[in-house]
Amino acid sequence: MLSKKGDQKLAQNKFIDAVIAEPYSKSPWLGMKQWAEANHVRMASPPITLPAPPEPDAKGNLDINIDPASLNTPTGSAWMLHPTLTMEWRSAGFC
């Protein structure tokens, strides 16, 4: 309805909200695709650059190096925490 009324930005936001609320349901994705086609917009995944994983040295010790510039990004804290938890999980013998 919002698209037909000409409010494309609000329609886009509603479709994005629907996809976030129901990511495994087909209908929000279909609605988003139809909106994109009607507005001549190409849907694409955002680029995600993964940091280099930590590598153990010869003794099995691990140094986790974090790029300070990554801390200024919205996902910086998650990428700082991820390798720490992964190595903790591996050292507990779950792998």
Please trace the helix and strand order, writing H or E for each element. HHH
Low-confidence stretches: none
| Total count of helical runs of at least 4 residues | 3
Strand content: under 5%
Structural class by secondary-structure content: mainly alpha
- Mean of the pLDDT scores? 80
| Helix content, binned percent | 40-55%
Q: What overall geometry do the principal axes of the alpha carbons give?
A: elongated
The termini sit apart by 51 Å
Number of E-type strands: 0
Largest sheet: none
Q: What is the number of independent domains?
A: 2
Rg (CA only): 21 Å
Oligomer: single chain
Short précis:
This protein is mostly helical.
Question: How would you characterize the overall build of this protein?
Answer:
The protein has 95 residues and is mainly alpha-helical. The protein folds into two domains: 8-38; 49-95, no CATH class. The protein contains three helices and no strands. The chain has helices at residues 8-21, 26-38, 76-91. The radius of gyration is 21 Å and the shape is elongated.
